[in-house]
Amino acid sequence: MNDSMQSPTTATDYDADTTTARSGLTIPGRSLLGGWRHTAQWTYLIMLIASAVALFASFVLSAETLQLARHPGQTLGCDINGVLSCSTVAQSWQAEIVKFGGLSYPNAFFGIAAESVFVTVAVIGLCQVRVPRWFAACTWFGGLAALAYAYWLFSQSMFVINALCPWCMVLMFSTTIQFMALSHATVVVQGLPPKADGLRTYYRLHIDLMMDAVWVLAVITLILVVDGPALFA
C-alpha cells in the first residue's frame, strides 16, 4: 500500500523538477541527461580545474610583466629560444591593449580578475546552488568572450609577433577546456537553451568528446606546422 502511494509522488516530483529546470532554475545535483559525465559535479569539476590552471598562468604572467617593468630587457625563465619567448610577447602592444588615463594595463591583470570569477562560478556549480537563468546565460557569454580573447592573442602571437609565450599557451588551452566544460554544464545542468534537443543529443551521444579532441589537436597541429622546426631549434 505504501509502495503504491509513493510511486505517484516520485513521478510528481520528477515533473516538478522538469518544470523548474525549464523555468530557468537549476536542479541541484541533477542533470537533464543520465550518466555521471553529465552531472553538475563532473562538469563543474572540470571547469574548476581548468579555471584554476588559467588563474595560475595569469598570476605567473603578471609577475613576469612586473619583472620586465623593473628590469627592462631582462631574460625571463620562459625565454627558451627565438620562437618560445615570453618577453617578446610581453613587450608587444598586444600585451597591453587596454589604455586609460595615459596608463596601459597588462592583459594578465584582467586574466586574474576573469579567471577568479570563473573559479567562483565553478565552485557554485559544485555546491549545487540554484542560479537564475540570466546568471547562467551571462556566465556562458562571459566564457565565450574569454575564449575569443585568448584566441585573438594566440593568433597575434603566431602570425604578427612571430613568437609564442609558453604561459600564454597554457592559458589558451586551459581557457579552451574551461569553455568546453562550461558549455557542457550550461546545456545539461542549467537547461539552456530551453528547447535544444539537438544539443542535448550532441552531449548524450558523447559527440562533444570527439569534437573537443579534434579542436585541441587542430590547434596543436597548427602550432607544429607554422612553428614546428623553430620550436625545437
From TrEMBL:
Residues 40-186 form the Vitamin K epoxide reductase domain. SMART domains: VKc (SM00756). One of its GO terms (cellular component) is membrane. It is a multi-pass membrane protein. It is found in: Membrane. Its main location: membrane. InterPro entries: VKOR, VKOR_Actinobacteria, VKOR_sf. This is Vitamin K epoxide reductase.
